[in-house]
DNA sequence: TATCAACAACATGTATACAAGTTGTATACG
DNA sequence: CGTATACAACTTGTATACATGTTGTTGATA
């Protein structure tokens, strides 16, 4: 992996795990110094993040982490739902035994989260889960779009996670991973996509409930 | 529009209009000299084009225009079909009278193409048509994806256009524009997306016929 | 005190020199 | 003559100095 790509992924993960909260100002110079490189590769990473709508670069003003627009959140999720369905149709799908092993390891680690309240850690486990599920998507464009939409929306869930029921959220993730593992063992990618779509739909419902009550209260 | 953005759009159009055919080697230095700037903004443009899968950048080797993978073409088109459907659902849609005027102007220019065999010119008219249709998509991600998929696939059509029936292709475009104009006049964006989906589906059929016969013959 | 202009301290954008990788060619050698 | 190696002529990647834009502060003035 090239230098800029490592920097890109690192910054992207920081944004998605809320290490950089929305509105945070990112300095090219400071990041360059931290990573021990010049501004050039850092700029390349930030420009790509801007294309993915995770930061906004303004000349003279600076580079700031975007705020997730709540009114368009539903539209983006609707798109994610549709794309998730398509994965089963368009992607032939092939998963290795090693990947299944890691999925089971992830599921066990998530189960251990029932008794350890750590939103960031849970988000990171799900982040890794997403990476594995992404790697089995054969279609390049579909993989890219799915990845991009995930990174645009995952912050919202993590942001309101402290206000949700912890055990319920952990259980939802454990269940999703369990169902997915069962399906991939039978190499039934169509079912995998349906499972993920359904879980995403349920998550969207919880988000709606929260956002509705948040607007009232 | 910033310097790099103008360069980006210019190079992108050249690739899509086959001024740069697949496999063409692009030199940062040469492009910089042509546009009268340094390599820096040119690199930014090329890096974005790489992200959109229109070029491949290899250190030491060079930057070359990608070849459209025929085996995945159907998958990309299937994705385009789905996304085009979604435009009607997710995008509230608003079009100005000026844009409708330009659509009619475009339609008239396309009609004049019956007697003037010029694939590149026809492609450019349709290119502009796409830009207008794109501008009415409210959802940012959907707009970006639709744009990207269009630019990834339009080259294929233009590439085999000389082997297709010229008058039929012109008529298909004139019809699509006519149907779209009729629908946007009633501000019925859902119908617009259906119309475009159907026309895209018919185009896909013609591509399939050609590719099938090309493999045989 | 309120207001506005000048400016200093940032930010990103650009140009350029140099580092490092790739590839084709030419030349020496078996 | 065939082959291997050294190298020259490209390419993109990186570091850095400077240009340019923005913003908050500071101080002079009404």
Short overview:
Two copies of one chain form a homodimer. With 217 residues, the first copy, chain A, is mainly alpha-helical.
Give the SSE layout.
Two copies of one chain form a homodimer.
Chain A: H1 3-16, E1 25-26, H2 28-35, H3 39-51, E2 55-58, E3 62-65, H4 70-90, H5 97-111, H6 119-135, H7 140-160, H8 166-185, H9 189-216
Helix pairs in contact in A: 1-3, 2-3, 4-7, 4-9, 5-6, 5-8, 6-7, 8-9
The structure holds a DNA duplex (30 and 30 nucleotides).
Brief descriptors of the model:
homodimer, 217 residues, mainly alpha, three-stranded antiparallel β-sheet, 9 helices, 3 strands, 72% helix, globular, DNA-binding
Q: Could you walk me through the main structural features you see in this protein, from its secondary elements to its overall organization?
A:
- Chain A has 217 residues and is mainly α.
- Helix content of chain A is 72%, strand content 5%.
- The first copy, chain A, contains 9 helices and 3 strands.
- In chain A, strands 1-3-2 form a 3-stranded antiparallel beta sheet.
- The longest helix of chain A has 28 residues, at 189-216.
- Chain A is globular and about 50 Å long.
- The model of chain A has no long low-confidence stretch (mean pLDDT 93).
- The interface between A and B is medium-sized, with 22 and 22 residues.
- Chain A binds a DNA duplex (30 and 30 nucleotides) through residues 2-4, 25, 27-29, 32, 37-41, 43-44, 57-63.
